[in-house]
Structure prediction request, 718 residues.
Amino acid sequence: MTSYKHDDNSVVVIIGSGAGGGTLANELCQQGVKVVLLEAGRRQSIGTFINDEWAAFSQLTWNDKRTTSGSWRVARDFPNLPAWICKTVGGTTTHWAGASLRFQEHEFRARSVYGGLAGANLLDWPLTLQELEPYYARAEDKMGVTRTNDIPGLPGNNNFKVFYNGATKIGYGATTGRMAINSQPRANRASCQQFGFCFQGCKTGAKWSTLYTEIPAAEETGRLELREGCHVARIEHDAAGKATGVVYFDANGKEQRQKARVVCVAGNAIETPRLLLMSASAKFPDGLANSSGQVGRNYMRHTTGSVYATFEQPVHMYRGTTMAGIVQDEAHLDTKRGFVGGYELETLSLGLPFMAAFLDPGGWGKGFAEAMDNYVNMAGLWIVGEDMPQESNRITLHATEKDQWGLPVPDVHYDDHPNDIAMRRHAYRQSTALYEAVGAKKVYEVPPYPSTHNLGTCRMSARPRDGVVNKWGQTHDVPNLFISDGSQYTTGATENPTLTIVTLAIRQAEYIARQMKSRSL
Amino acid sequence: MSEHPVSLGALAQPRVSRRAFLKGSGLLVGTLWASSSVLLALAPSPSWALELKSLDQASATALLQFCRRIFPHDKLDDAVYALVVKELDEAAAKSAETRTLLTEGVAGLNRAAGGNWAAAPVEKKDAVTASLAGTPFFRKVQGTAVVALYNNEMAFAHFGYEGNAFQHGGGYLMRGFNDLKWLPNPTVQASPAAFGV
Prediction:
């Protein structure tokens, strides 16, 4: 087991082991860099994952206290659970469904293409699709994305059959999509056995997760020290404004200080800005790397919602991959629909326990009971679309509430933008038409779940005054401090974010290793 | 407790313990309905009992009837609703505040029903239930029930959810993940054949 001393200031410290941090750790180790990877959660395995929704939720979810504000319905339904993301080695790659779609070219130029939209804090990415393409290709190969690299698509389940037929009838095309789930054995991982518990941790390892790909690969190099159960409280810096290390609570609750040559933050888009804000100092009174004032702002979560429909005959939607099919016919830009940006429709299923929890939070009575009575005859899909960045949608430190470490809890504030509302309405209408085309008896428009796509709170910008990091994820203010997760997103795009987070991490690792070699870092 | 805790969840076969008598606390008992064939197949005995830790029998019965009106599944056996009562009873045993909330809530139900909530006709029960929506008592029972009622093997059997795939035969690749017959199959481009099948 590799282990580094706390005062070893030659290591790169990465905070968070999910799609961004876990990938970055491996990519750096492969290039000879020494890495200390701090993960707040504990290590599970495909052997310890549980095919039980509530039990797995307790095992994997980030359940530390958070508060919510704003007019989004999540604040009412789940006031202390704004996000459904993970606190475990592998982060939310243990829980994600696997959809792996590249951005569209225009989505990197949202400000230029969508124009100035009232209330939206749009900005172009300092990056193009062309620049990212080679890294997208590497990410797809690494993750084993179906329908790339000659990997066949996955077989569709019953939920997909309903979705496909409805989609076809209303003029859409549906396929089983590009998924980071093995459709055949690959990279020493098995093929999908259609358990139907993708959200609870994949029991065969067919679904890509840093837990059993990137992290063990990094450990094999002998350059990675993974420290689990370690919650970072602040990042420290010297008089010159360079990061010197991090202070964290270890698995025994003991405060530790790890020195570092470079610090990379990948705690997901709530914890990452929270950590920068908690690292405020005399030199950085508004929070570390926050000269722009944009740390924590422009919080995006995708314009989501679900539609479930009941039929005369059985579906058994819970059998097989949780996200089994994708329609991209509304993903393009067409302002004639009454909104900018686009959305995907992706099949989704919930087991009986989570259907009860999420169908209509707070709901009860005959209508609710009738929906549950028809559970076996139900099909479902999820809407994922681009939401608008707004300065007032933001992560702040709560004035009085503290977590188990005595640290201020993050508050997550979100209001839908009128564009988000128009898009969701359109998507509900189209999804209803899709299911009615194949004989739906009743259609249920289900409100957004707590956010799994958390983005934009340390956004990338060409100019330091517009955002927090440059095109490499390097903070404008602190040269040896990087943001390595979805917080970097300048705008949200419509696609599920994991593939792009992994792509950016591969590219960032090259940059960091190069800069370290040339002694620029 | 039952020797078959998995199949019948937390409910025991009837067995009145000496301790229960001494404490004067109650026992909620029932018999699986003849129509509950899927549950009868799971259960070691058609009779069930819940030994109460904090609430009395009348309150437990009233709460069970209240759950039945919040989530009215007319064909779902009382034995499943009793699992909600079990959760509420345990919460009451742990917290005096919760116990007060529940016992005062039950008193309110009786008052609103003109004396005996549990014996009131369904229409009356539904009107009373609707009048309480949003109150802390209602929210406590609803919030407990929305988890406990649907997160157990009996509910899974009743509603037709197959639960833990890993324990019950593995993935659905060879057992019905794409067995839907009432719609045409997708093209192989949209949905390729499964590996090894």
Observations:
- Confidence is low (pLDDT under 50) at residues 1-9 of chain B.
- DSSP finds eight helices and two strands in chain B.
- Chain B touches chain A through 47 residues (CB under 8 Å).
- The helical segments of chain B are 18-23, 37-42, 57-70, 78-94, 96-112, 122-132, 136-148, 153-159.
